[in-house]
UniProtKB/TrEMBL annotation:
Keywords: Flavoprotein, Oxidoreductase. The keyword Flavoprotein applies. This is NAD(P)/FAD-dependent oxidoreductase. It comes from Leucobacter chromiisoli. Signal peptide: none annotated. InterPro entries: FAD/NAD-bd_sf, FAD/NAD-binding_dom, Ferredoxin-NADP_redctase_2.
Length: 329
């Protein structure tokens, strides 16, 4: 089912997590007509409590999203659509001018409705991608059962609760050493599992050994536990190393398939590269939140980034209307 195109919007925001909601709030307060399109698959859906968001420490991440959406939707120029964006197509200059966009830049954004909502189509002067990251956990059968409770990915978010416990760090990427150092602030009873990957260099292993952290290079078979409690990491040779929880470094994917074959610059991890203004390598398309480096990937950083990029987007559109470009930015 497809809807009639609505009134053109200033910004179509793809993703209604803390980054998108925060940008949306600032932009409706700047008297802009704004659409947030959200597929309701937040990264932290595996967890019941979020930490470190000032005034909301310990709150449920779903509650944070609910409050954010409520505040955004209280403004008359706000639209929140439950849909998966499938396509972002640049308008021609004539189409953009025809839509009332004075600088000739614009986009058509189409999405498929979810949970009984209609399909959506927005014509927008600018696009803000705040779609977060999708995570690929290592393929151990039971890892999902402990992810978000015993095993986490964000050390800044969940390290405190793990103080002095026997911990695992599971990771096959080159940032595992730095993560191990970060975790050592919470517990020195730490085993780094590389699952057979050659990602911790011998001199790094020596440095870790000096602070009591060992590196286990044998492949992992699974995470083991009793009921909801994680009790260890079982290796492929059958031995079990007792651990009550810890951290895993998932592989991340920036979900921007809706751009089709429009090239967009990424960094070595696949995250979307943006300028100081928050604009991607596609003119008029901005990005914010977990999907852009450098992190840390936290709710408050995503929300702060959203407010910052909103100010830049607003100024970009003011200058675009006056024909003065971004020269003084
Ligand atoms: C298990 C876990 C626990 C965490 N705990 C904490 C914590 O305690 N404290 C903390 O500060 N941080 C925590 N984090 C990190 C925090 O969740 C992220 O930093 C934060 O959610 C990033 O916000 P975001 O707005 O960039 O992305 P997200 O919150 O992931 O939101 C992105 C939104 O975009 C939507 N989307 C994606 N693609 C499309 C599309 N094509 N069309 C429409 N919508 C789309 C998704 O459905 C989602 O709703 C945790 C993360 C995980 C994985």
């Amino acid at each position: 089912m497809s809807e009639e195109p609505r009134l053109p919007v200033g910004v179509a925001i793809i993703g209604g997590g803390p980054a998108g909601l925060s940008a949306g709030l600032q932009l409706v307060r700047a008297n802009r007509r704004i659409a947030i399109i959200d597929s309701n698959r937040p990264r932290h859906s595996a967890t019941l409590q979020s930490h470190g968001f000032l005034t909301r420490d310990g709150a449920s991440p779903l509650e944070l999203r609910r409050l954010g959406r409520e505040e955004f939707e209280a403004y008359p120029t706000a639209t929140f659509a439950q849909a998966v964006v499938r396509e972002v197509v640049p308008l021609t200059r004539d189409e953009a001018i025809g839509a009332g966009f004075p600088d000739g830049i614009g986009f058509r954004v189409r999405g498929t409705g979810i949970r009984g909502s209609s399909d959506v189509e927005f014509v927008a002067r600018r696009v803000l991608i705040s779609a977060g990251l999708t995570e690929e956990l290592p393929p151990f059968p039971m890892i999902r059962a402990y992810y978000g409770t015993a095993l986490h990915s964000c050390v800044e978010c969940d390290g405190f609760e793990k103080t002095d416990k026997p911990l695992a760090l599971i990771g096959e990427t080159s940032d595992v050493f730095a993560r191990a150092l970060l975790i050592s602030r919470f517990s020195s009873d730490l085993v780094v599992f590389t699952n057979g990957a050659d990602t911790v260099r011998p001199e790094q292993e020596r440095q870790l050994a000096e602070i009591g952290i060992s590196v286990e290079r044998r492949p992992i078979d699974d995470i083991v536990g009793e009921k909801a409690e994680m009790t260890g990491v079982r290796l492929a040779d059958g031995s079990v190393i007792p651990r009550v929880g810890g951290f895993v470094r998932p592989r991340w994917h920036a979900p921007v398939e809706f751009l089709g074959d429009q090239p967009i610059e990424r960094d070595e991890w696949g995250l979307i590269v943006v300028s100081d203004r928050g604009e991607t390598s596609i003119r008029g398309v901005y990005a914010v939140g977990d999907i852009v480096p450098p992190g840390p990937q936290q709710l408050i950083i995503a929300a702060g980034g959203g407010a910052r990029v909103a100010a830049r987007l607003n100024m970009d559109m003011i200058r675009g209307a006056l024909g003065v470009g971004m020269i003084d930015d």
